[in-house]
Design goal:
Layout (H helix, E strand, L loop, with lengths): L10 H25 L48
Length: about 80
């Protein structure tokens, strides 16, 4: 079985390695973003003034709206029993 007195790496070692990793990443991002020159795009769009009239379409009438079913408070029509 494993020796209970022997443990793996120290928690401080992982903490320091994490700090170093974050610092290296931060320096890399800083160096990457400050070394690039940002060019500003000069974009011009020239379009003619075109007026389009929409076509007139003869659409059919929509179907009738659905009817509400009889509620539970209303009595339903009773049919006499057939012999």
């Amino acid at each position: 079985m494993a020796d209970p007195e022997r443990r793996g790496g120290s928690g401080w070692t992982a903490f320091l390695a994490g700090i170093v990793l974050v610092a290296v990443l931060g320096l890399g991002v800083y160096a990457f973003t400050t070394s690039q020159q940002r060019d500003v795009a000069d974009l011009q769009i020239e379009m003619p003034d075109v007026k389009i009239t929409p076509p007139e379409i003869d659409l059919p009438e929509p179907p009738p709206a659905p009817q509400m079913p009889p509620s539970a408070q209303e009595e339903a029509p009773v049919q006499p029993p057939t012999p």
